[in-house]
């Protein structure tokens, strides 16, 4: 009989481990599902009143922002992301929409901003080898290190909506051109 008791204890221990493993695995799957991007409802918002949303598109400082309070709106998140760029398409975007934790807010850009970019003003290149950022075409801007088609279009959009650059340093106001990129191109551009 003592052998039967030992076998019974081993079987019970294995069953207990299997039950605990199943319960743990189920709770881990639920957590992973939330982490993989399933939108959380407002009821699942952290009890602290803080929520985090990701803001991208036509805003001055895209990225994740933290908001506190209740009845939060898209406008609150956009303001924390530095506000709208002049190219933001506010006619096709609802700033009054309520937001929830984990939401991705994408502010669209005006399509007409891209369509009306000046193409007749070229002559951005010159005999001194510098690119004139006030007159260069998209193709000429792309000759600069680290400037691709999208960034060239942003530079053109910026000068279209804000007027000519008043200094070479002002190009840093274009979304995506920070100190490092500016350092790479500053000796190759002029106004």
Detailed description of the structure:
It is a single chain. The protein has helices spanning 2-35, 74-80, 111-115, 138-141, 149-162, 179-185; strands spanning 50-57, 63-68, 104-107, 131-132, 189-190. The chain has 191 residues and is α/β, with parallel strands linked by helices. The strands form two sheets. The chain has a three-stranded mixed sheet, covered by helices on one side. A two-stranded parallel ribbon has the order 4-5. A hairpin with a 5-residue loop joins strand 1 (50-57) and strand 2 (63-68). 19% of the residues are buried. Residues 27-46 and 113-125 have low confidence and may be disordered.
Tell me briefly what this model is.
This protein is α/β, with parallel strands linked by helices. The protein contains six helices and five strands. The longest helix is centred in the first third of the chain and has 34 residues, at 2-35.
Fraction in helix: 25-40%
Report the biggest beta sheet as strand number plus sense, adding barrel if it closes: 3 strands, mixed
Radius of gyration based on Cα positions:
27 Å
Poorly predicted segments = 27-46, 113-125
Q: Per the principal axes of the C-alpha atoms, what is the gross shape?
A: elongated
Mean pLDDT: 77
How far is it from the N-terminal to the C-terminal residue, by CA? 97 Å
Question: How large is the count of helical segments?
Answer: 6
Strand order of the largest sheet: 2-1-3
Order of helices and strands: HEEHEHEHHHE
Total strands: the figure is 5
Strand share of the residues? 5-15%
């Amino acid at each position: 009989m003592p052998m039967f008791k030992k076998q019974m204890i081993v079987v019970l221990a294995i069953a207990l481990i299997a039950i605990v493993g199943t319960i743990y695995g189920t709770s881990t799957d639920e957590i992973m599902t939330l982490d993989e991007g399933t939108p959380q409802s407002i009821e699942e918002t952290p009890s602290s009143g803080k929520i985090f949303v990701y803001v991208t598109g036509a805003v001055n400082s895209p990225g994740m922002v933290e908001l506190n309070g209740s009845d939060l709106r898209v406008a609150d998140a956009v303001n924390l992301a530095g506000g709208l760029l002049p190219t933001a398409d506010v006619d096709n975007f609802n700033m009054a929409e309520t937001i929830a934790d984990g939401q991705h807010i994408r502010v669209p850009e005006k399509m007409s901003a891209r369509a009306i970019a000046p193409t007749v003003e070229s002559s951005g290149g010159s005999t001194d080898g510098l690119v004139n950022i006030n007159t260069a075409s998209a193709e000429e801007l792309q000759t600069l290190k680290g400037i691709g088609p999208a960034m060239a279009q942003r530079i053109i959009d910026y000068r279209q909506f804000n007027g000519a650059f008043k200094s070479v340093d002002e190009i840093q106001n274009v979304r995506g051109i920070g100190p490092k990129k500016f350092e790479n191109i500053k000796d190759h551009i002029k106004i």
